[in-house]
């Protein structure tokens, strides 16, 4: 007998979504998108060249990727709530430490700390928490949650620029650091719960207490060891690396490409700014689709979006010479769709393939691909431009990588391990 559902307003999970959206606005928006705003001031203060300063980004990316499996293991052992609260406190400390940087080695060290903080306060914990609270409506809940990162990325850079203009870059870091303690941390301490059982509920608002409720109330899936031995795991890792390689290569080099092709310094930033804006409705639409269609098909569609972005730049800008808003708008629609679709579908696909029993550990291992994609994509595209004076070869490599990810996505069998799913207590 299916258990009755509680009122949508009464289900605590939607409050968790709102809390995660608010948290990611700060942790994700600041962690992923504001460093470029500080970069010119850091170069000036540290009296270094651009390459030396951007090494800090490489350090950050490596640590984010390598720390993610550790974060997943910690969450499995100590709970997502404790890890996220500690990481948010550490995010405030990292911002305050950045305000006193005086040498390059200090910048590298603190950016390494920031990488660990971002890994523990953004994607893996948020995706794990949503996975615990939702099954039937996991896609739309994940979308609403991760929209916080997109909105933070849209609003925090200009806010940071305003703070730098009025308080200096050190003052801006101090304000951001204090906001983590005054604004972000208290709601997490007061309202965050690990799973529905903590408030006497079950995923999606099902009422526990009978057969249907008990089933909905129990974590199930395969172990991390079993997941890693499966073909689906490595297909997902391959897809993540290939798609992140292409999207990061394009997004990091778009400014240089646009100015090289003749766009003004005012117009060139609009390529990525508008793409980031597209991710907001794009995430929501993708979330709804995830609740209705196979996530492997949606991941294949994400690959097509990824391929279409550089293809549009090659055809419209390089070949047809569109140095106007037609090219910017088309690229923003395609690149924004690629980022939004990949971000939402990935955790849903992982949950569908391996269950929620050890989701945080499995997701943490897959996030190692973040470091690989971020390291290889932007640097290889930049290197190609340095050698050839053009991004055309880089665009073709990105297109090929994205199309290969489409093939890998279609090979996944999301239900391949379902017969092996066991509960957290070890029972089938």
Give a quick summary of the entry.
The chain is mostly helical. It is 78% helix and 1% strand. Helix 5 (104-121) runs parallel beside helix 6 (123-133).
Topology diagram in text:
Blueprint: H1 12-33, H2 35-46, H3 50-78, H4 80-98, H5 104-121, H6 123-133, H7 138-191, H8 211-217, E1 220-221, H9 224-228, H10 231-261, H11 270-290, H12 295-319, H13 325-354, H14 359-366, H15 368-388, H16 392-411, E2 422-423
Antiparallel strand pairs: 1-2
Largest sheet: 2 strands, antiparallel
| Number of H/I helices | 16
Distance between the termini: 20 Å
Cα radius of gyration in angstroms = 21 Å
Across the major sheet, the strand order is: 1-2
- The CATH architecture of the largest domain is Up-down Bundle
Could you name the CATH homologous superfamily of the largest domain?
Answer: MFS general substrate transporter like domains
Residues in β-strands, percent: under 5%
Determine the mean pLDDT: 88
Helix content: over 70%
Count of all domains: 2
User: Could you state the order of secondary-structure elements as H and E?
Assistant: HHHHHHHHEHHHHHHHHE
Overall outline? globular
């Amino acid at each position: 007998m299916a258990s009755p559902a509680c009122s949508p307003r009464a289900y605590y999970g939607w409050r968790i979504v709102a809390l995660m959206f608010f948290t990611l606005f700060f942790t994700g928006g600041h962690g992923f998108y504001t460093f470029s705003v500080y970069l010119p001031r850091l170069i000036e203060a540290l009296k270094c060249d651009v390459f030396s300063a951007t090494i800090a980004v490489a350090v950050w990316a490596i640590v984010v990727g390598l720390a993610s499996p550790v974060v997943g293991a910690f969450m499995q052992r100590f709970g997502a709530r404790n890890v996220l609260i500690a990481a948010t406190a550490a995010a405030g400390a990292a911002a305050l430490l950045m305000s006193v940087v005086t040498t390059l080695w200090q910048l590298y060290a603190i950016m390494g700390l920031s990488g660990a903080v971002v890994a523990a306060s953004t994607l893996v914990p948020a995706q794990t928490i949503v996975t615990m609270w939702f099954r039937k409506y996991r896609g739309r809940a994940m979308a609403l949650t991760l929209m916080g990162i997109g909105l933070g990325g849209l609003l925090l850079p200009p806010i940071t620029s305003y703070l730098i203009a009025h308080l200096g870059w050190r003052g801006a870091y101090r304000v951001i650091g204090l906001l983590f303690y005054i604004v972000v941390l208290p709601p997490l301490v007061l309202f965050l719960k690990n799973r529905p059982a903590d408030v006497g509920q079950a995923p999606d608002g099902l009422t526990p207490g009978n057969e249907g409720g008990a089933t909905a109330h129990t974590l199930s899936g395969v172990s991390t060891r079993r997941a890693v031995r499966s073909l689906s795991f490595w297909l997902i890792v391959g897809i993540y690396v290939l798609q992140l390689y292409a999207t990061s290569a394009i997004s990091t080099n778009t400014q240089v490409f646009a100015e090289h092709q003749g766009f003004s310094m005012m117009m060139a930033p609009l390529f990525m700014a508008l793409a980031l804006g597209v991710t907001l409705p794009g995430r929501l639409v993708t979330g709804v689709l995830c609740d209705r269609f196979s996530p492997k098909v949606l991941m294949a569609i994400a690959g097509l979006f990824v391929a279409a972005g550089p293809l549009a730049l090659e055809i419209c800008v390089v070949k047809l010479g569109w140095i106007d808003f037609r090219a910017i708008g088309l690229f923003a629609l395609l690149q924004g769709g690629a980022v939004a679709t990949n971000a939402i579908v990935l955790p849903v696909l992982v949950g569908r393939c391996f269950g929620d029993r050890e989701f945080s550990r499995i997701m943490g291992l897959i996030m190692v691909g973040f470091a690989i994609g971020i390291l290889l994509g932007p640097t290889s595209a930049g290197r190609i431009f340095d050698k050839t004076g053009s991004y055309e070869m880089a665009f073709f490599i990105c297109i090929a990588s994205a199309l290969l990810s489409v093939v890998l996505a279609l090979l996944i069998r999301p239900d391949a391990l379902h017969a092996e799913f066991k509960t957290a207590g070890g029972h089938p």
